[in-house]
Write a structure and sequence with these properties.
The structure holds 2 protein chains of 2 kinds.
Chain A (H helix, E strand, L loop, with lengths): L19 H13 L4 H27 L14 H12 L1 H12 L5 H26 L26 H34 L3 H10 L7 H34 L11 H27 L8 H31 L3 H11 L7 H13 L7 H4 L2 H28 L15 H24 L5 H11 L1 H12 L2 H8 L2
Chain B lengths: L2 E9 L2 H13 L3 E6 L7 H4 L7 H27 L12 H27 L6 E3 L11 E6 L6 H10 L4 E8 L2 E3 L18
Antiparallel strand pairs in B: 1-4, 1-5, 2-4, 3-6
Helix pairs in contact in B: 3-4
Classes of the chains: A mainly alpha, B alpha+beta.
């Protein structure tokens, strides 16, 4: 008799005829084989982008942020847009690993490892923007509070920009610990199967000497549960604090109390879209369709349509408040600078509306949620839309605020600012390609743990048990 | 450190493992540990282990983080460098909540992970004796510590009877040492075998 039981109504999360050994074989196959040509092509493109980004950053560091075409009122342009965009993407991983762990959602096991990796890489990319936006990047350590010879002049603990420093560095650290502590048992599996001496040594180092002792499993499970409990408010706090960067200011279009929930929903929305883009490629390239099933894709699409609609409600609420508040400046920002298609940046607002609010609505249909092409296409659209959202918030509020005399000229980024953005794509994908090749992209131990509850063949066995008459069933299985 | 004598039994199914654990413990043998490829729920209770107190440690670390944040910030902003920010109060508690929260989480998470690694003796460069190469793949390895009086042949037969697919006798070092997984040598070799 199986120790755990799950209803037949629930779709199996591991398809095909699997046993524990087969799970190991399937998931570790890409690590143990040689990288494919496609992998090399992708990896070199990513490295090339990264190098272009490094050169763009070099220009910025040498000549100053004027290189980016930032102007008199638009002090935040593509750089902070990209920062918020990447941080938002970085929200899905911890949401999947922490919140879905607390809610006992079995489908998280198929995607949590890659989503957490994505989170870590996205936060790394995000961090580059505020750091280089400082201009004099060699002074970046001034954001850290430590006794110093400048007074001591402390950082301003009342400033949302400093809260950001704490929030993002804490988020990065905790996500990294969560991710790595989950990786230790899987590295041990790779180590124990390694054929060459080098692999045995390196994975031996990475696995920290893990043996699989029952006591260690007991402790690691307790650790993960508490880390999940800590990460859940943490993940909500991070984008809340990012939204405070805007909401605590007095710029029309930013000075709103709706920002924290609206930003968090948007972050989850874009993060899940990025997970979809990556997982659809990963499952295809590595042949992991048995572990990342259409059921997983569908579950994530449900999250996308939910959060997309929350974001849509937030947009409409803002428009309504722009009129209802009877504030001239708010009204001008929302109804002229944004919602008017023929205003200079009207295209970005309507691009955002089309990508984020209208198009995800097709996921109300089950057929669409389970269609890989539609999902992949939509995942790209959503991330384009979420980029527009941050651009709209930042640029349309900054270019015309209170005094017409200080309205700025039309802002468009320079090639070096675009290059910096492309460079973070390079960083992200370089990391992701290395991860996909050298790390188990699916949590092997966690899949084994749910295999007998949700594996296809095991569920079939349980179907017989379910067909039993109640009194027979009670006789056989009651304690 | 001295070596000890162990008898191991390998199982491929947790449904067989649980009754076997019960039988072995009833027969009075001392199970050193069971090595499993994934967390098997209830096994810790079946082996008579107590609950871990790692979460209590986490709570203490969290409180430490909170205290650190509140004491540092209030000292800095009220005593060391009382900066006038728009005439607002120096002791601006609501504005510090984000940092207090972040430091609570940071201290709790980092502290717990370090404690976890310390308790389980996990670190890069640490090497331990592995009773079976497939304990991290698909095999549940029950390790029983032998005393002077243990009849190892009887014990192996007993384990096979309880459903073990493979049994053997190993003389092994129990603790950890610094070593590389691609090399077999130990920093010091002791041939002395100590019975439990």
């Amino acid at each position: 008799m199986h120790l755990k039981y799950e209803s037949q109504l629930r779709e199996p999360l591991v398809t095909g005829d699997k046993n524990y050994h087969q799970v190991t074989e399937d998931i570790l196959a890409p690590i143990e084989g040689k990288p494919t040509k496609l992998w090399y092509v992708g990896f070199y493109i990513a490295v090339a982008l990264l190098l272009f980004g490094v050169y763009s950053v070099y220009r910025e560091v040498t000549y100053g942020i004027g290189q980016w075409n930032l102007n008199k009122t638009i002090g935040w342009g593509w750089d902070i847009t990209n920062f918020v965009w990447w941080v938002g993407i970085g929200h899905a991983g911890t949401l999947i690993s922490a919140i879905l762990l607390l809610f006992r959602q079995g489908w998280r096991t198929g995607v949590n490892r890659a989503a957490e990796a994505m989170t870590i890489f996205a936060v790394m990319c995000a961090g580059q923007f505020p750091i280089f936006h400082m201009g004099r990047v060699w002074m970046a350590f001034f954001v850290l509070p430590y006794p110093n010879s400048r007074g001591p002049l402390w950082v301003n603990f009342n400033s949302p920009l400093l809260w950001d420093v704490f929030a993002i560095s804490t988020y990065f650290t905790v996500s990294l610990l969560f991710w790595y502590s989950g990786l230790i048992p899987d590295f041990a599996t790779v180590r124990d199967r390694a054929k060459t001496k080098l692999r045995k040594h390196l994975y031996g180092l990475a696995a920290f000497g893990w043996t699989g002792s029952t006591k260690h499993w007991q402790r690691i499970e307790s650790l993960h549960l508490v880390l999940a409990g800590l990460s859940t408010p943490l993940v909500l706090s991070v984008h809340t604090i990012v939204s405070f960067d805007f909401a605590t200011s007095v710029i029309p279009g930013w000075h709103t109390t709706i920002f924290p929930p609206y930003f968090v929903a948007g972050a989850v929305f874009s993060g899940f879209a990025m997970v979809q883009s990556l997982m659809i490629i990963v499952r295809k390239v590595f042949g992991l369709q048995d572990y990342i099933t259409l059921g997983h894709i569908e579950a994530m699409n449900k999250v996308i349509v939910t959060t997309g609609s929350i974001v849509g409600v937030a947009y409409l609420t803002e428009l309504f408040m722009g009129w209802y508040s009877q504030s001239k400046y708010e009204g001008y920002t929302f109804w002229y600078s944004r919602a008017n298609l023929f205003s200079p940046y009207g295209w970005s607002y309507w691009g955002m509306m089309a990508c984020n609010v209208l198009s995800p609505q097709i996921f109300w249909f089950k057929k669409m949620r389970r269609n890989l092409f539609v999902t992949f296409f939509m995942s790209i659209i959503v991330n384009v839309g979420m980029w527009f959202e941050r651009f709209v918030i930042i640029v349309t509020s900054l270019y015309r605020d209170y005094l017409p005399s200080s309205w700025s000229v039309y802002y468009s980024p320079s090639i070096w600012e675009i290059g910096f953005y492309l460079g973070t794509f390079g960083l992200f994908f370089t990391c992701f390609f290395l991860f996909a090749k050298y790390f188990p992209v699916i949590a092997v131990a966690e899949i084994k743990y749910v295999l007998k509850t949700t594996g296809n063949n095991y569920k079939d066995d349980m179907a017989e048990v379910e067909a039993q008459k109640l009194d027979e069933f009670v006789h056989d299985y009651a304690h | 450190m001295a070596k000890k004598k162990f008898v191991i039994g390998c199982f491929d199914n947790e449904d067989v493992l649980f009754p076997a654990v019960k039988k072995v413990r009833t027969a009075g043998y001392k199970i050193q540990d069971v090595y499993t490829p994934f967390p098997v729920h209830g096994l810790d209770h079946a082996l008579g282990m107590r609950e871990t107190s790692l979460h209590t440690a986490g709570f203490i670390y969290g409180v430490t983080g909170l205290t650190t944040a509140i004491s540092c910030i209030s000292w800095i902003f009220t005593k060391d460098w009382p900066l006038n920010i728009g005439g607002k109060p120096h002791f601006a508690l609501p504005a510090w909540i984000p940092i207090m929260f972040e430091l609570t989480v940071l201290f709790a998470a980092v502290g717990m992970v370090l404690t976890f690694c310390y308790l389980c003796q996990l670190a890069p460069g640490v090497k331990k004796h592995h009773f079976h190469a497939r304990a991290t793949d698909d095999t549940f390895v029950m390790v029983i510590e032998c005393t002077d009086k243990t009849n190892t042949d009887d014990l192996q037969a007993f384990l096979s009877n309880a459903g073990a697919l493979e049994t053997n006798l190993q003389i092994a070092e129990e603790g950890w040492w610094f070593g590389r997984y691609d090399q077999d040598e130990m920093p010091f070799e002791s041939t002395q075998i100590v019975a439990a």
